[in-house]
Design a protein that fits this description.
It is built from 13 helices and no strands. The chain is mainly alpha-helical and 309 residues long. It is globular.
Length: 309
């Protein structure tokens, strides 16, 4: 069965995704600029940089010339997964995107469409369920393991529709996974040692999958047996390189995130931790006031969004 050239440069799929990413960046930066001038410095310059870099990594993964090489090398395919699940989501959440996006959208759309949606009881219940760390962890683990089952992997490689579903699920599960870790506004900042354990246990599915692919003496994904072997890699060497990349990258990112959280939690100066929490709460309130100037209902409903338990 021949490969499909997913995300080939100039394809309708790539162009559409590029337009969506540019639109999201424009809306965010419009709201970011407004909040920078009216919200007492709550939104810093690095927030905008973080959001743009996060969107850029998504573009690299799904619409850049590199994306078209995933049918040739498993290493490229794995790199795309890492960008969508491990690198882009925390950068997007670190940008505190909710406030700038609400401010950047047209006022009438926010008031007439988003405000009623946020106030809807079913939506708020679904949001609370999606924001639970247990669900976020399971969603990420299921996406990682499920799409690397050989039969499922092959279907996604040869079907444009399933390939889009696969990439969307990686990004969605990545955003869910990093929500309890970063805790962006409107979630409430709740430093908790359990999040360090959350990150530690999240490495286990990756360790199992990566270890299996690295030490297996046969090619697990037959689709790559007929590839053109770019850069002189055999299919087995490509598989081992892809697994090593995933193993190293995920472990390093989770280790850094866990170390930062642990240092904050174990800081000997409790007053510093109290001050950080107070500053965050104050920032949330100031940002909330700015957003409420657009729509008081949206900001009030947003307080019940995932993570604000």
């Amino acid at each position: 069965m021949p490969h499909l050239h997913h995300g080939a440069p100039g394809s309708l799929e790539s162009l559409l995704l590029t337009v969506i990413i540019i639109f999201a960046a424009t809306v965010y930066l419009r709201g970011w600029l407004h909040l920078r001038s009216t919200s007492f410095g709550i939104i810093d310059g690095w927030h905008g940089f973080s959001f743009v870099v996060g969107l850029s990594l998504i573009w690299v993964a799904i619409a850049s010339p590199m994306a078209a090489l995933d049918h040739e090398l498993l290493t490229v395919h794995m790199l795309k997964h890492l960008l969508l699940m491990t690198l882009a989501p925390p950068l997007i959440w670190l940008a505190e995107p909710v406030g700038p996006l609400l401010r950047g959208l047209p006022q009438r759309f926010v008031q007439r469409v988003l405000a009623p949606a946020f106030q809807s009881l079913p939506v708020r219940r679904i949001a609370r369920a999606l924001g639970q760390p247990e669900f976020c962890w399971l969603a990420a683990a299921a996406a990682l393991i499920g799409w690397h089952i050989p039969a499922v992997f092959t279907v996604a490689m040869h079907s444009t529709g399933w390939h889009i579903v696969e990439q969307s699920s990686f990004l969605a599960s990545g955003l869910l996974f990093w929500w309890p870790v970063v805790q962006p506004w409107p979630s409430l900042l709740r430093p908790d040692l359990s999040i360090v354990l959350y990150l530690f246990f999240a490495t286990l599915p990756c360790d199992i999958l990566s270890g299996f692919l690295v030490f297996c003496d046969r090619v697990i994904y037959p689709a790559y047996l007929s590839s053109s072997h770019l850069f002189g890699f055999s299919a087995l060497e490509d598989q081992q390189c892809a697994a090593a990349l995933m193993w190293t990258c995920v472990t390093l990112v989770y280790l850094v995130a866990g170390a930062i959280l642990a240092m904050r939690l174990l800081s000997p100066n409790d007053q510093d931790k109290i001050a950080v929490a107070r500053d965050y709460s104050m920032g949330s309130r100031l940002l909330g006031k700015s957003v409420r100037s657009l729509s008081r209902e949206v900001a009030a409903a947003a307080i019940s969004w995932p993570g604000s338990r």
